[in-house]
Amino acid sequence: MLTQPRLCKSAARASLPPPEPVEAGSGDPPLTHVTLVWRGGVQEDWLRFGKPVAERILDRRTRIESYAPGQVFALVRWASNDYGTVGSTLTVAQAAGFGEPFTTLPQVDPGAQILLSVRSWPKVRQVFALIDAIEDVGIDPCDVAPDHWHHVHNRLAGGMQVRSYSPARHRDWLRRRKLQS
């Protein structure tokens, strides 16, 4: 049974159409567009977290959210049929910039760097609990170190215990990111 998801706590969004594809050297960064479809009880896509820079509503059931290079978001996809759930996935991804490598993903145009990917509702729920724990200590999941999402992915794939993401580790990540920029 699908439980009601916690909605992302994102900043105010502009309801703008996604821009046309950007040519190299034009000055504007290319955006990553995520198409979300909501057909209650059949196909339900939502963002667990993310801070889109633009949103375009196509109709009552479909919207497109756009992310600038480097932004991190978590896409949840759930589908069912007459016999129950047929698919549950959660992908934590980072929008790629022009010329950066990326992986193609369903509903993500052109694609993104995958930081974490799980399939099956029990694993998705487990990642939800990890995200909730990060939020409970006052850290925005969008700002978590990408290495932590890789760690979570690898530990879950190996059936091992995941280490928690502490405020001290987050401070270290912020310092490292500041030095790299």
Key features of this structure:
alpha+beta; disordered N terminus; 181 residues; 5-stranded antiparallel β-barrel; single chain; 3 helices
Number of strands: 8
Structural class: alpha+beta
**Averaged pLDDT:** 86
Number of helices: 3
Order of helices and strands: EEEEEEEEHHH
Instruction: Report strand %.
Output: 35-45%
Helix content: 10-25%
Rg, alpha carbons: 17 Å
* Strand ordering within the main sheet: 1-2-5-6-8
Low-pLDDT stretches are 1-25
Give the CA-based shape: globular
Largest sheet: 5 strands, antiparallel, barrel
Query: How far apart are the first and last residues' alpha carbons, in Å?
Result: 44 Å
3D structure, described in words:
By secondary structure, this protein is α+β, with helices and mostly antiparallel strands. Helix content is 23%, strand content 35%. The chain contains 3 helices and 8 strands; from the N terminus they run E-E-E-E-E-E-E-E-H-H-H. Strands 1-2-5-6-8 form a 5-stranded antiparallel barrel. The longest helix is centred in the C-terminal third of the chain and has 16 residues. It starts with 31 loop residues before the first strand and ends with a helix. The N terminus is likely disordered.
Layout of SSEs?
Layout (H helix, E strand, L loop, with lengths): L31 E8 L3 E7 L4 E6 L2 E6 L4 E10 L2 E12 L7 E3 L2 E12 L1 H16 L9 H12 L9 H14 L1
Antiparallel strand pairs: 1-2, 1-4, 1-8, 2-5, 3-4, 5-6, 6-8, 7-8
Précis, in short:
The protein has 181 residues and is of the alpha+beta class. The protein contains 3 helices and 8 strands, in the order ββββββββααα.
